[in-house]
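User: For my dataset I need records formatted as: sequence, then structure tokens, nothing else. Please produce one.
Assistant:
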Amino acid sequence: MTETIAFLIEKSIVAAGFFVVVLGVVAYATLGERKIAGYFQDRHGPNRAGPWGILQPIADGVKFFAKEDFIPDRADKILFVIAPTFTFMAAGFIMAVIPFGDRLTIFGREVLLQIADINIGILYILAISGLGAYGIVIGGWASNNKYSLMGGIRTSGQLISYEIAMGLAIVALLLDHGTMSLRTIVMQQSGAIWHWSVFTHPIGFMIFLVSAFAEASRMPFDLPEAENELVGGYHTEYSSMKFGLFQFGEYTHMTLASGLIITLYFGGWSIPFVPIPENPGILWGLLTFCAFWAKTLLMMFVFMWVRWTLPRFRYDQLMNLGWKKLIPLGIFNIVLTAGLLLVFQSMGLTN
């Protein structure tokens, strides 16, 4: 009983700590994107709230709370209120299985820098990521606005299309690693940098990266909220903190998608050419935690870079890319990976 209570306390502290860190990163990702957009467009970006604009996320939060909360008369009020919360929570649940670091020893107790190391971690992520579409679809329908409804319909079609391609990319990866535990996948990529899956599975990485952009509804796949066509898409009728939750959910999804890409293809928290110690201390745990977030922030920069570089696809181009390009390429990648593994195994080059 004592051990169980200690375990629950440990996991509660780890979960609360990671939640605060992720929320902080998400809040300042909004500032980072606006700054990057400013540099790309030869302007300053936010620079009024605090030195260099570092207090802008706090000012935005206060603004969201202070603005009038408007609900359309003909909207389904219950679903209208639930939708943004659902979207934010669905994005946050993915955090539970992502390893943010290796482990550390505190007061003689080994603590994993991961909320839950389950042996079906990848299946869990695929299942939860699909739930995010429900909040957007519900919000689009409950608004009783034709533009919002169109944005919700686009979201459902987009996510269904690109989840298939993402799943196919992951299947090829699982054939190689032989496990669905994210922590084990990271440990198998430790050591030399060429152990990273991005070098052994380049086709799968490109498929997963493009699908991640579509899953997060990021440019050039932000058709659900295309301003020049749908005014604002699924959140056209939203204001105040409900609109803020939709935005927070979008950036949370982008942050955790970046972390998942790093985990699966760039070694996660592993530090290149540095072996994993048998008895890790606090310093090792902090180093792996910092390594994970350094890689994740670089991947988030790629998301922002692409947004302010590439134009938006048309919807027919979006669907053609998903069904006629990525899915056949994903099937080819599975066959190629299985064939190469069979050849290497017959030659005694794999375990």
